[in-house]
Each structure stands twice: as C-alpha cells, then as structure tokens.
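1st attempt posting a full record on here, be nice pls
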Amino acid sequence: MTNFFFYSLCALIIYAPIPLGANRIWASSILDFFIFALFLGHLLASIKNKQHFFPPRYSLAILAPLSVTALWLMLQITPGLGTLLGRSFPTLSFDPSLTHIMWLKTLALIQFAWLVFYYVNTKTTLYKFALAILISGLFQALYASWLNLNEGMISPIFSIPYSTAAVGSFIYKNQLANYLALCLSIGIGVLISQLSLKGSGHQVRHKIRDIASVLLSSKMLIRLSLIIMIIALILTRSRMGNSAFFLALAAISIFSFFFYNRKPKNLRLLILSFFIIDLILVGTIFGVEKVKQRLLETSLASETRDEVVRDSIPMILEYPVFGTGGGSFYSSFSQYQAQPYSGFYDHAHNDYIQFAAELGLPITLLLGTMVLYCLFISLKTIVKRKTPLYQGVSFGCAAAIIHMLLHATVDFSLQSPAISLLFISILSLTLISANLKREQG
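the predicted structure (as tokens):
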C-alpha cells in the first residue's frame, strides 16, 4: 500500500495542470476530491495496519501555517462575525461562496503536503518524486511546443484556440511559464546531484570514457528534458517568467559557487551551459529576441497592472486584519476601481497584494515567513549537508522559491491550484532534504 500512495502522489503532480491548470471550479474540485480520497485511504490504511498516522515533526513548519490559514478562512465564512465586527455583511468575507472554495483548496494543500512528508521518506522516494515533477514539466513543455510550432492548430485538450505564445494545457501563458520554471529548477537540482565529485583524468582515454558514460546515462535524458523545457519557457513569451527564472538560477548559482559543500567538479560548466547553450543558442532559434522585445516595449503607459495594484491598496488599508475574504478579489475589487481599464481584472496580478487584500496582513506575513524559512533551510542544506541528492534538490528548491518570489510581484500564479500544489510540494522537499538521514534510502 505504501507504493500505491506514493505513486498516487506522483500521478497527481503530473495530472494537476492538465485540466486547464485546475484553474476552473470543476477542475479544482476534481483535484480536491482525489486528494481527499487519497488522504482518507491513508487514514484507513494506518488504522488497519496499526501504523502511525502523522508525518514527521519537522513538517509543522509548513502544515501549521497552512492549518492556521484554513482556520482563518473558516472564520471569514462564519455567519454573524461580520455584523459583530461592524461590517455590512453577516460574514467577514465579501463573497462566502468563493471563500468556501478557497478553504477547500487549502485543506487539499494541507492533506497533500501531509502525504508528501509521510511517503517521501527515503533517498529513493525523494529522487522519484523529484523525477515526477520533472516529467510533469517535460509533458507540459512537449505539449505546449507542439501546439505553438503548429501554427493555427486547435488544442486537442478542451479545444483551446491557437495562441502565438505557448500555453500548453493552461489558459494563461504566464502560468505555464511559472510552472515550467518550477519544474526546471527541480530538474536542474536533480542533474546537479548526479554530477561526479571527482574530475576526469588527464589522459584522453579517460575523458572519452567519461563523456561516453554521460551520453549513455540518465543524465543525458535529464539534460535533454531541461533543454525542451527551456524551449517551451521561451515560447511562452513571458517577460517575468523568463527573467525571474534566469535571475533566480543566477542568484543560487553564485551562492553555490562560494558555499556549496563538496562542490561537484563540473558544476560551473553545467550552470554556464544553461546561459550560453540554452539561453543564447537555443533561445535564438526559438525566439528569445521576441521576449527581449516585449521587455523593451514594456512601459507604465501601456500596462495597467500597476493601476490595479494602486487601486487595491485601499482594500488592504480598510480591512488590514481580516481582509475581504479568500478568493473575493473577483467580486470586491470593482468597489475600489477608480476608473475602467483596458481589460477586466479578476486578480490583482500581484500575489502579495491579493493575499493581503483577501486574507489580511497577519496571514500574508505568516505565509511569507513560511516561504522564507524554507528558502533559508534549502540554502543551509546546500552549505551543510554532504549527500549529493539532498544538496541538489535543495539547489532546485531554492531556485524555485526565488523565482516564485520574483514572479509573484507581477502575476497571480499561486491562484492556480496546479501551481500552488507544485509549490507546496517544493517547499515540502526543502524540509525533507534537510532532515532525511544520510543512510535512509
């Protein structure tokens, strides 16, 4: 049964983004149902086999903040509290139905993280789970590139019209870019963990032997997968999606050059290859110039996202503690919108602003602290631990977290259940990599 639950988690990671990034109520409800059913199965199996039910204690760093958030959402939809606190609504939430949906999503995230902490408990399962993330990103990259390079083709999944920017099974290109960047980060970490700690011999035959062993090993398959994902990331034409990923990779790479414990001999060459081979050569073929052009053409005059952020600030100032209700930005923002924009905004295009407006500042700071703590732990693992897999996965997790911190300033990727599920999984991997014993696996 242990294998069943573990591989079910891997399958859910791969499945989650396929139905429109689970960014529709029906899609997120199906995903929630699968997670709830799996968690119930875990409970029943634990009782039947008389095994412990709870995950390791270090999981509290993630499960506790998420649980507090779930309780907060329950308070927001509790009848009578709004009136008690002087609001014109009986509940604290402006839209209790949407807050209820967000509450269910949060419960699903808690249970999924619980299961990840419980079943990803050896080096082998950690490696396989990281590979599942890589496979999910590869599938999205292949699907998105195939659609984008076949001009005019309608998507066979949900018949999505052709887009000049790659979207994959998502609807929004920036969300695909974010998802790919997270998967790329973990994939790079896995590849780093497989680098040899010893350099090649000076003799030509030794170098030829080492090159042949790389070409015939899983490292080459992983490297090719990363190149395909880089291509798809570029094809999204996402400005911040591309910029944030390479900035995050550069930041963690520089940190690793100085502080990586028992640094692999070819680490610098591998990192440089991502910037020279992938970004320059591959990017030139598949249109990195178009991304560059979009960056250059970006101006405050042509963008209205800054105006959405500006008009969202009064929401936070008026309800700084309890917020307007989880998921309520869609219905409550219109009351604060000073003037019509060129488009309709159902999200703030800034996760920090949206979380603060909907959940209030205390919960936003709590969740932010959780993310920063996981970033700190991943960096500490890179510096302190000696097991290559734990260090490599932590490298990928750190790059993924920094990418998300940057991308969240201009987009709403965490509002997609598929991306939030993946991100919580990555945060969980930071603690698992830091706490698994060296001999486990």
